[in-house]
Amino acid sequence: MKNIVLIGFMGVGKGSVAREVIKHSDYIAMDTDDLIESMENRKIKTIFEIEGEEYFRKIEKKVAKWLEESVKNTLISTGGGFYKQKNIKKIGTIVLLDSPFDEIIKRIKEHPKAEKKFKKRPLLQDLEKAKELYDLRRPEYLKVADVVVDVTNKSAHDCAKELLKKVKKL
Ligand SMILES: Nc1ncnc2c1ncn2[C@@H]1O[C@H](COP(=O)(O)OP(=O)(O)OP(=O)(O)O)[C@@H](O)[C@H]1O
Ligand SMILES: O=C(O)C1=C[C@@H](O)[C@@H](O)[C@H](O)C1
């Protein structure tokens, strides 16, 4: 089974969809942000604050190399900037979870722990800058994706079903 690599903007629902996909398939799920936090034994927010973004991207690169060489049968959800890794297409089938910026922000705001959700994402601190980043990245996400799932107004369960159907068809 080829790996599935979930890409998309922060908060689009990569974690939620991944958890649904593994309920309906034999994939194992992992998340690059969680892996990096565990490797570093500190939160991404802290890594950004103390070491800076460049340091974080270097760890992502190390993770990307390891994923390509050593990981199989896995649904890999990734941080919002992971799609830039040069070897990403060698890791697995790339699936973009897509939604307009305002919908993503609306969803996070609706979460009971909304404040915490915003705080943990360094690049979501300034919404104007985050929108600029979204506009810059969206065409790049589309370029790298093998499959696109529009998650707007769909449950994570329905997104997972659509994802599996589209990946099977490739
Ligand atoms: N299909 C959905 N419908 C409604 N709300 C959703 C859906 N998927 C996710 N959410 C909500 O959107 C927010 C972000 O979801 P999630 O944490 O899964 O995103 P993420 O892409 O993994 O984020 P990050 O990679 O930045 O951690 C959460 O509050 C979650 O409850
Ligand atoms: O969009 C991004 O570049 C990021 C998204 C988060 O998932 C984390 O990977 C980190 O905060 C960077």
From TrEMBL:
It is found in: Cytoplasm. Pathway: Metabolic intermediate biosynthesis; chorismate biosynthesis; chorismate from D-erythrose 4-phosphate and phosphoenolpyruvate: step 5/7. SUPFAM superfamilies: P-loop containing nucleoside triphosphate hydrolases. Transmembrane segments: none annotated. Its EC number is 2.7.1.71. GO terms for cellular component: cytosol. ATP binds at residues 11-16, 121. The keyword Magnesium applies. Monomer. Catalyzes the specific phosphorylation of the 3-hydroxyl group of shikimic acid using ATP as a cosubstrate. This is Shikimate kinase.
